[in-house]
Every structure is written in C-alpha cells, then in structure tokens.
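Quick one, probably user error.
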C-alpha cells in the first residue's frame, strides 16, 4: 500500500508539473500575441508618420537594402552599380555588426561567385570590444565571417595582441584582471603586450611605465532614523531625494575632483609638439597635465548629476553626456512658464513663477501685494488681472512696467514664430544678463549655455514645424513626459579657459583636425562619459567611477532572439517574463545570459584600454555584503581586488580630502557683505529700450474683453480635443469638466461652458460633413502655416473633401454684415485661402466661420 501511495503521489506531482508548464506556455502565447499585435500597430503608425514627414531611420535603411538585395528584379541592377563603384571593401569595428548587416554584406559578396574582378575585402575588429548588444550586435559574426572569407576568398586571419596606446602598467592590469581563471571559458582573451615607450626623464618611474590603481571604496552610511519633532514647516527636509546612494556618489565625486587636482600638480603627459627649428618635424615632450587629459567613465548615467556637481563645485569645467537635462533646469523652466502665460495669462502658478524668477525678480512683499489684490473685493479673478489693473498701491509703477513687457510679448506671440519671439524676449528683457547676474559664478557658464540651447531648440525642434506658441508648448510637455534619452541635453558651456597659457595648447592643435578654439576647449575640460560613448576614444588618464556596482544584469523579462550567423533570418523571436518563460525557452535565455556576461567583461576591457598613461578605479561600498567590506560579488572592483591591483595612497585620507574640497567650495560662495564677482558678457547689448508697442496701448483691454478672449481660447481647446483629425481616430470619451478646468486652470463653471459649446458645434447636424470622418477624406486641427513673407498663421481646422478643401474658423459669435469684424474676418480667411491654395493649387478652397451655437457663415465660396 505505501508503494502504491508513493506512485500515485509521484504521478500527480508529474501531472501538476505538466499543468504548470501548460499554463506557462498558455500565458507566453497570450503575451506574445498581444506583443505582436501592439508592435504591428505601432509599426504601422510610425511608418505612416515617417511617410508623412518623408524621413527614414537607420532601421529602415538596413531593412530596405536587405529587401532590395534579395529581390531578383532589383538585385542585378544594384550589383552592377556596386561593381562599377567599389573595388576595395574595408569594414572597421566589425564586432559591432548585427546579423542583418552581415546578411547584406554576405549576399553582396556571394553574388560574385568566382569572378576574378570581385572586390578585395579587409575586415578589422576586436570581439572583446563588442558592447552594443542592445542593438543586436553579435560577436559570433566574427567567426562566421572568418569561415566565409577563408572558404570563398582564401582570406588570411591575422591576430594582433599588441597595443601602441597603453603604458606597460595598464597592460599588466588588463592581463591580471582578465586572467584565465577569472573570465568565462569561451571568452576570447589572450595575454596583451605593448609597444608604448617614453623618453627618459629624471623623474619617478611612473613616467616610464604608466600606472594603474584602485581607490578605497566610499563607506556606506545607514540612513538616519533620528526622530523628528514639530511639523514640516518648522523642520522641513532639505532634500527628500537625498538617498544614501546619492550621498555616496557625491562624496565619490568630491574625491575624484581632489584626485584630478592632485594629478595635475604631480603628473606630466607625454605629447608631441612642432620643433621650433623645423616646423615639419615633431618632437616628443613631457608637458604639465591639464583637465582635458582626464576621462571619467561610468557604466550607467544614474548618478551623473552628483559627479557633475562635485566637478563644478571644485571649479573644474567638464563635458557630460547627461541626457534630458535642458527642460528640467530652473532657467528653462522659467522660460516655459513665461511662454505659457503668453498663451494663457490667467495661469496663476506660471505667472507667479515668472514674477519671482530673475526675469522680473519681485520680492516677497510685492508678491504679497498681488495676492491681496486678488483676494480683495475689486473683482480680480486671477493674478494677471490684478497685475494689469491693480491701482493705489506702492508697486503700481513696477507692475505697469512688467505688464507693458508681457503684453507686448503676448501681441508678438500672435505674429512671430517661437524662435523669433524668444529672440525678441531675450533682448528686450535682457534675459541673459539678468540670469548671469543672479546665479552663482560657478554656475554662470552653464546657465547661459542652457538659455542659448533653449533658443536653438525653438529653431530646431522638429525642423521648425512649430511656429505657433501653443503647439510648441505642447511638444515641450510631451518631451518632458518622455524618456530622458529623447529629451534635449543641457547647453555646451563656453570655452573661455581660466589662466590658460595659449602656448600650452599648440601641441594639440598640430595633431588634431579641430580648430584651435575647439582644441582649447577640450584641453581645459574634464570629459565625463559613458563607456559606450567613449568607445574609440583615448585619454592620458582614465578614472572608472562606480565600479562596485557593475555586475552583469539579471533578466526578469525581455526579448529572446535566436539568429544563427549562418542563417538568412532568425529562427526564434519572443517576449518573456519570469512567470511565462517555461522550460522550452530556458536554453535561449541562458544563451542571452552568457552573451550579457561576456559583454560585461567587454565593457571593463574597453574602459581600461582607453587609458594611455594612468588608470584609476573608484567606487562606493554596497549596502549588502557587509561581511566583505561592502565589495559586491562579481563587480569590476571585486575583479580588480582579486587581481591585486594596488591601492592608490598618494591622496590624504577620504575625510581630509572631503573637508578640503568643502572648504574650497565654502570660500567660493558669495556672502551678503561681499560684492559679487565682476563678469562680462561678450556681444550682448546691456541696455535696450525696446521696440514700439504693437497694437496700441497694452493696458486698453478691459477685464470683460479679456474674459471673452479667454473663453474663445477654452472653446477652441476643447473643440480641438474632441474633433478627430489625421492619424487620430474618433474620441469616444468626452473629457470631464474637472479635467478641462485642471488643464486650463479655470473654474469649473467656465470649463462646463466651454465643453457645452464644443459639443454643440461637434454635434450640429449641418456641420457633420466637417466632423464625421466617414464624410471627409482628411482633417487637420490647429494647422500651422508660414507664408512666403515669413508670417505665422494658424487654421483652426482644415477639412479635405472629395472636390475641395474647407477652412473652418471658430468664433464665439458670428458678425453681422455691417460689423467691422466681418471685413476683418474675411481678410483673415482670405490670407488662409491664399496659403492653402499655394499648397493645393488644383483644389477649390472654401472658408466658413462657425460660432459657439453651431451656426455657420460661409465667407469664401
């Protein structure tokens, strides 16, 4: 009986396992069906958008070439064109090739057969530097290409394990860290050697053989759990985001700044310069080290801000790859708030930000006066009305001056593209001068660079397709909500070197294609980069940051792609999660893990081999592994320690270094009793009277008139939201009044009124021709146009019917024939008609006014 019981239990155990596997496979199928469906829809949408914009991305080019070379109708013609043009094919960085690129090259070369006139092929690469797996680079292609070229071309394989870049100590560090007992069995590493030599110097041996060290890890401090008393207003947290990890990186950054300063005082750099007696001959020299000789490398961007702050506080200029920073800076945020109030002056929060910013620099007393005016019984509904119409207070003159500027900009915003508007604001408002005078000296260059970068963004954003202010702000908000990699970077700082000897830069000028001013800028800036971004670069001194947080990633979810280099296409593609993987795909996941592990070793190899003379490895203690001094298992720092890479002991202890840096920072901070440092802004008008006001007296708009204008804006905005247009289906959900009130920062009553007006127009039976997608071909809302003369204009809605194009213009009320507005609107729509006719010369153009009651008035038939 016990034996039968055990058999039954084992049987049910196997059944349960089979059920779990079946359920896992079911979930995997459902997940991938959804993924492929969504991907197909996204692909279709992006392809339509690219067709509309007439652009192609790199994936399109690769796929298009692969399809052309595989199409027998085109392949022969394409082959003939290639034959006539190329006799030698040289491919560099072959380890970064993906399978599709290899199939293109392979198809091209296979088509020659045994033709004696086929081109010569030369491939160069290093599998140890393959670090672009995220774009499907596959180092296994090296083996496939080797076999193909040996078989069809009789190619010879030449291996090179000797470098000319790295000093002997750096090569020794590489050999020790990548010893056979530490790397994966199949990792393609052979012991390295170097041809690097240096002329003799009566100096320490460090100049003859280079140096490679690691620094002590920054200690980990447990987060403070001190009991707090009182309330948040009495004892507010200085920075709620200041986590222990960020504090560690900030301290690491300060120590690296101290290290750079120390090395610039104690090290020399091997360089070349022209012989003064013979300008065609170069001689080897040892020159003093400078900031541009240092390359700081990180594996990820997570803590770039902390490192940048430390360098800035230490007075070191730097170049950084931190992405997405521009729109989050205070100065650019102020400018976005300014643009917002030029569209919706009733936005109290944006207006308060602008008034407190360096643009107008109102103090607390003046802001309190505005707040009291709004709360008074004088009928002011928002801060804008109080600012423009408030009287009988001590700040009236200053408020009127501010109003004059803002109202002039509001009027200009109706006529000028965004870049021209911002350009006018910068000069008439002395924007650069005001921000330069308000910010700290160490931040001034970056602040001014960000202001210039924002002005450039207005010109470059989407090819200048956003001449209207509202569309520009909408696009900025979308960029802010997107991934940081897709948002604009902070501006490039100026290249004014402090106390830089021009003669010190001559050697760099002669060996570089850069202009002298570009070389000078590089010479006086520390470079802070990701390892991916630094591939192909080199520097006398390399410092690897955060090296104790570099273990290979663990995959809980992702995409599995199996593409044998010998095959024309992939044999497997699927998405997986931890719960939907199943036994059937475990081998594929293990294959991806092995590739990821090798790539992690490759990243370390690339980082170390960027260094010519000196290499330092830095990091912070982990909150785990306390029994091993906070060293993370399998991290790069752990590998360097096991390879017995020596500790750097020339610096003072970490505490003293931090104190010295902090004291240096404190001496730079301005005090109320100390006048600010004198500075100069070149090529800038420091005083400007401004142009004559456009449109008459800016104070002539009454609160009632302003209310009517605002209601028109809200009506337009809601109607645009619910109206279908090109590439956007019919919206089946009407926004709630609360959502409209929040979006426009208006009262609930105003939002309900705007929504009712929009729905009345949208559902009007006689207007369905223009709002029902089944009755028209295409439609565009808020269509921006620029005339030949450069004048910006916006059409509320343009509808394409089978026989004509119809321009719709929304108004709260329709004018009568004897009303002056009738003639004004007719001229306005005539201008629209001229520009649309220029784009569609073979179609009839009509124009119609539509009011908030759903009535229409044809003006152009």
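Nope, works fine. Designed sequence:
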């Amino acid at each position: 009986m016990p034996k039968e019981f055990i058999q039954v239990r084992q049987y049910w155990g196997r059944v349960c396992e089979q059920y779990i596997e079946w359920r896992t496979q079911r979930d995997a199928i459902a997940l991938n069906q959804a993924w492929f469906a969504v991907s197909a829809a996204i692909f279709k949408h992006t392809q339509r958008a690219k067709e509309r914009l007439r652009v192609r991305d790199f994936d399109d080019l690769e796929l298009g070439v692969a399809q052309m070379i595989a199409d027998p109708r085109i392949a022969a013609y394409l082959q003939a064109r290639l034959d006539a043009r190329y006799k030698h094919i040289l491919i560099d960085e072959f380890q970064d090739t993906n399978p599709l690129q290899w199939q293109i090259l392979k198809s091209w070369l296979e088509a020659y057969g045994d033709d004696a006139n086929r081109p010569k092929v030369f491939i160069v690469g290093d599998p140890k530097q393959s670090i672009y797996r995220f774009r499907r680079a596959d180092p296994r292609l090296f083996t496939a290409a080797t076999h193909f070229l040996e078989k069809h071309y009789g190619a010879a394989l030449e291996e090179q394990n000797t470098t000319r870049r790295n000093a002997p100590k750096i090569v020794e560090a590489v050999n020790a860290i990548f010893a056979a007992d530490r790397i994966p069995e199949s990792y393609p590493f052979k012991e390295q050697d170097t041809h690097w030599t240096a002329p003799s110097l009566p100096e320490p041996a460090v100049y003859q053989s280079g140096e490679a060290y690691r620094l002590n890890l920054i200690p980990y401090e447990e987060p403070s759990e001190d009991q707090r008393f009182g309330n948040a207003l009495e004892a507010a947290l200085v920075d709620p985001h200041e986590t222990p990890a960020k504090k560690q990186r900030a301290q690491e950054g300060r120590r690296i700044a101290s290290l750079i300063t120390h090395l610039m005082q104690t090290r020399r750099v091997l360089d070349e310069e022209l012989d003064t007696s013979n300008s065609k001959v170069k001689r080897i020299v040892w020159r003093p080290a400078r900031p541009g000789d240092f390359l700081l490398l990180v594996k990820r961007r997570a803590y770039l801000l902390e490192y940048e702050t430390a360098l800035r506080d230490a007075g070191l200029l730097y170049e950084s790859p931190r992405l997405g920073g521009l729109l989050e800076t205070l100065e650019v945020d102020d400018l976005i708030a300014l643009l917002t109030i030029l569209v919706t002056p009733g936005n109290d929060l944006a207006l308060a930000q602008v008034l407190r910013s360096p643009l107008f620099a109102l103090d607390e007393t003046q802001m309190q006066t505005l707040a009291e005016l709004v709360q008074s019984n004088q009928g002011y509904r928002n801060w804008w009305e109080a600012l423009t119409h408030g009287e009988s207070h001590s700040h009236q003159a200053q408020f009127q001056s501010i109003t004059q500027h803002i109202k002039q900009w509001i009027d200009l915003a109706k006529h000028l593209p965004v870049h021209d508007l911002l350009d006018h604001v910068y000069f008439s408002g002395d924007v650069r001068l005001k921000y330069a005078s308000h910010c700290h000296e160490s931040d001034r260059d970056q602040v001014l660079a960000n202001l210039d970068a924002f002005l450039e963004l207005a010109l470059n954003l989407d090819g200048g397709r956003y001449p209207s202010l509202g569309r520009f702000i909408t696009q900025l908000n979308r960029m802010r909500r997107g991934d940081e990699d897709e948002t604009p970077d902070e501006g490039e700082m100026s290249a004014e070197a402090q106390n830089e000897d021009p003669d010190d830069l001559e050697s760099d000028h002669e060996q570089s294609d850069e202009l002298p001013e570009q070389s000078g800028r590089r010479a006086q800036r520390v470079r802070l980069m990701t390892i991916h971004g630094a591939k192909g670069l080199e520097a006398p001194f390399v410092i690897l940051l955060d090296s104790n947080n570099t273990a290979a990633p663990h995959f809980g979810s992702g995409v599995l792609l199996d593409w044998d280099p010998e095959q024309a296409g992939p044999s497997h593609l699927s998405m997986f999660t931890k719960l939907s993987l199943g036994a059937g795909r475990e081998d594929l996941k293990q294959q991806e893990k092995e590739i990821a592990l090798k790539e992690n070793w490759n990243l370390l190899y690339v980082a170390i081999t960027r260094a010519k003379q000196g290499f330092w490895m830095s990091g912070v203690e982990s909150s785990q592994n306390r029994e091993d001094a906070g060293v993370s298992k399998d991290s790069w720092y752990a590998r360097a320690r096991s390879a017995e890479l020596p500790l750097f002991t020339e610096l003072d202890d970490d505490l003293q270094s931090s104190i010295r840096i902090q004291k240096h920072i404190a001496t730079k901070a301005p005090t109320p009793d100390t006048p600010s440092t004198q500075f100069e802004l070149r090529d800038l008008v420091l005083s400007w009277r401004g142009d004559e006001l456009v449109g008459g007296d800016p104070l002539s708009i009454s609160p009632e008139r302003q209310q009517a204008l605002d209601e028109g804006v809200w009506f337009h905005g809601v109607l645009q939201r619910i109206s279908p247009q090109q590439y956007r289906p019919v919206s089946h959900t009407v926004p709630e009044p609360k959502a409209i009130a929040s979006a426009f920062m208006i009262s609930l009553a105003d939002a309900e009124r705007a929504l009712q007006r929009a729905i009345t127009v949208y559902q009007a039976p006689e207007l369905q021709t223009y709002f029902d997608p089944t009755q028209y071909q295409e439609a565009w809302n808020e269509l921006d146009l620029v005339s030949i003369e450069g004048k910006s204009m916006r059409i509320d809605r343009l509808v394409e019917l089978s026989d004509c194009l119809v321009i719709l213009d929304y108004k709260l009320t329709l004018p009568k024939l004897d009303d002056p507005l009738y003639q004004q609107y007719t001229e306005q729509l005539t201008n629209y008609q001229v520009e649309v006719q220029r784009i569609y010369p073979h179609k009839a153009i009509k124009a119609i006014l539509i009011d908030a009651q759903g009535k229409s008035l044809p003006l152009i038939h």
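Residues 495-519, 654-676, 684-699 have pLDDT under 50 and may be disordered.
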